[in-house]
Design a protein that fits this description.
There is one protein chain. Helices cover about 15% and strands about 35% of the residues. Strands 2, 3, 4, 7, 8, 9, 10 and 11 form an 8-stranded antiparallel sheet that branches. Strands 1-5-6 form a 3-stranded antiparallel sheet, with no helix packed on it. The two termini are about 25 Å apart. It has about 200 residues and is of the alpha+beta class. The chain is globular. The longest helix has 13 residues.
């Protein structure tokens, strides 16, 4: 389920090339988490949405290495993180800065409507593992969360994504064929099909 919208009102603050990404910190496009989950009950994309989002944010708060958010936290740890007003704030655009092969500074503008495909370094260390993971952005958000590690609310940016999987078949230099990707089927494993991502991971 896409959160694509061209009517969102937001302001993106000016940034510097040394910052990996830019996105708005506007709070005008607030989404009530409980209402949103009620309205989309039965959609595979929102299955275990809240506990999985808390897993993702807790890993970052605790400065644990990203592993694809495969390790869940306990219910007690989930209870330690709360959302201010129980809201998320939706955004239209994520801008990612990068350096080109000829050492120029460039910027990609990503959004769930027209430029949603992204890639990041794989965490699969096996010999057969592909070097990159691929995903499609279905939502760009930030949340203000309360956690015992901070006296003040913590503002955290994140992407809601649908993951691509590498299709079977030969690929690479010897096969003279690029790898093919396709959406992980939500009917087979909806918990692997959708997830959350720190914008810092996007390359």
């Amino acid at each position: 389920m896409s959160t694509c919208s061209t009517s969102l009102c937001e302001t993106i603050p000016s940034g510097e090339p040394k910052h990996h990404y830019q996105m708005s910190n506007d709070t005008r496009n607030a989404i009530s988490i409980s209402q949103y989950l009620r309205e989309h009950a039965g959609d595979p994309a929102v299955k275990d949405f809240l506990p999985r989002l808390k897993d993702h944010l807790l890993r970052r708060i605790k400065n644990l290495e990203y592993d694809g958010d495969e390790t869940p936290f306990s219910e007690a740890e989930h209870a330690s993180i709360k959302f201010v007003k129980h809201e998320l704030y939706q955004h239209k655009v994520l801008r990612v800065n990068y350096t080109t092969y000829d050492l120029r500074c460039e910027q990609d503008s990503l959004n769930p409507c027209t430029h949603a495909n992204i890639m990041l370094l794989s965490r699969d260390d096996s010999e057969e593992g592909h070097p990159y993971w691929y995903a499609r952005i279905i939502g760009i958000f930030h949340a203000r969360v309360i956690h015992e590690s901070s006296l003040d609310p913590i503002s955290m940016d994140f992407l809601w994504v649908r993951w691509y999987g590498i299709a079977s078949g030969k690929s690479g230099w010897k096969a003279r064929c690029l790898p093919r990707v396709g959406f992980i089927e939500d009917g087979v494993d909806s918990l692997s099909a959708f997830g959350f991502l720190d914008p810092m991971e996007v390359i």
